[in-house]
Design brief:
single chain, alpha+beta, Deoxyuridine 5'-Triphosphate Nucleotidohydrolase, Chain A, two-stranded antiparallel ribbon
Length: 332
């Protein structure tokens, strides 16, 4: 399937807005007594406390903790994330649209995807997300179970690895991951008092730089920064799946083994040694994944057949009686 190059500018929500529309509740917890994982009710309450409107409100793209906040995506203790337009599949850029909404992740391939949602995560909440269970059982894995730090602002993205032997399709706007939110422990009373007197993000940054105790880490490095999804983290690289490349190399090796009938015993032995090294490397890299595992089993059968042929040739040379054994190599 062809992958059209990016022709459109990135959507505006991938850039830091001039007005974030945040209230002081963004750093001053309105429910300090609350601990644990947030239920749907409190996801909405925190969203509204820091400046957001009700779910599905008209200004949902520019206010609150989850932008936009849609009621249908709320779960009992989490929020579903939907596939955004920007993707990178085996090093090739994709920009999904209503006209071309389908993302195809090839077998044994890696894809980097963006989410439609933007977060403005309060300073006292940690978010975590993972794939929906049905995609996991289809053979799709998240590259890591990432933690989203308190005060994170911006779009989300993640790597997906298809370890199955079939293509996997996800469509623009389709829920494919779920995020939950967990409270941090309460702050020191004196720190909480100081935070309650701060009225803007600018004043918060000044306090952190000049007066805050050195143990305060409300920002990871200085003031918060926005990163472009996917490309803000890759530094110009275009990662590809090593499993896909290895699978292609092993398939080529299996085909090459079929031509060994005309080689001398020493030639066969040299090729067999090379194949043995390839098998060993493949076992280490793939950890027994489906397609590659089947092909490795074929290579083992070839090795055994080659060893039998070499031994037969040796005995034939000793007795001067020609022997020929069938070379059992087949492509699975």
């Amino acid at each position: 399937m062809s992958t059209p190059a990016l022709q459109q500018p990135a959507p505006e929500h991938w850039h830091e807005p001039s007005q974030k529309n945040l209230t002081s509740r963004y750093w001053d917890d309105p429910f300090p007594e609350l601990q644990g994982m947030l239920t749907a009710e409190y996801i909405v309450r925190y969203h509204e406390a820091i400046g957001g409107g009700p779910p599905d409100s008209d200004d949902g793209d520019s206010r609150g903790m989850i932008r936009p906040l849609r009621a249908e995506l709320l779960k009992p203790a989490g929020y579903e994330l939907t596939l955004g337009p920007r993707c990178l599949v085996q090093g090739q850029d994709r920009l999904l649209s209503d006209r071309e909404p389908s993302l195809i992740i090839p077998k044994n391939a890696i894809a980097f995807v963006s989410m439609e949602q933007v977060l403005c995560l309060p300073h006292y909440l940690v978010a975590r997300f993972d794939l929906t269970i049905d995609l996991i059982y289809r053979g799709l894995l998240l590259g890591a179970g990432p933690q989203v730090d308190p005060r994170y602002q911006g779009g989300l993205s993640c790597p997906l690895h298809n370890i199955s032997d079939d293509e996997i399709e996800i469509r623009l706007g389709e829920p494919f991951a779920k995020m939950d939110f967990v409270k941090t422990v309460p702050r020191d009373p004196e720190i909480a008092r100081r935070l309650s007197n701060i009225t803007s993000e600018r004043d918060l940054a000044i306090w952190l730089a000049k007066d805050a105790p050195p143990t305060q880490r409300l920002f990871k490095r200085g003031a918060p920064t926005w990163r472009e999804p996917i490309f803000g983290y890759l530094n110009g690289r275009r990662p590809r799946s090593s499993l896909r490349k290895l699978s292609d190399e092993i398939t080529y090796a299996v085909k090459a083994v079929k031509t060994l009938r005309n080689l001398s015993p020493l030639g066969i032995l040299a090729v067999a040694a090379a194949i043995a090294a390839l098998v060993f490397a493949a076992l280490q890299l793939t950890n027994g994944l489906s397609t590659v595992k089947t092909e490795l089993q074929s290579l083992r059968a070839c090795q055994q057949s080659l060893a039998a042929q070499i031994e037969a040739d040796r005995r034939s040379a000793a007795s001067r009686v020609p022997l020929a054994l069938p070379l059992r190599c087949s492509q699975p």
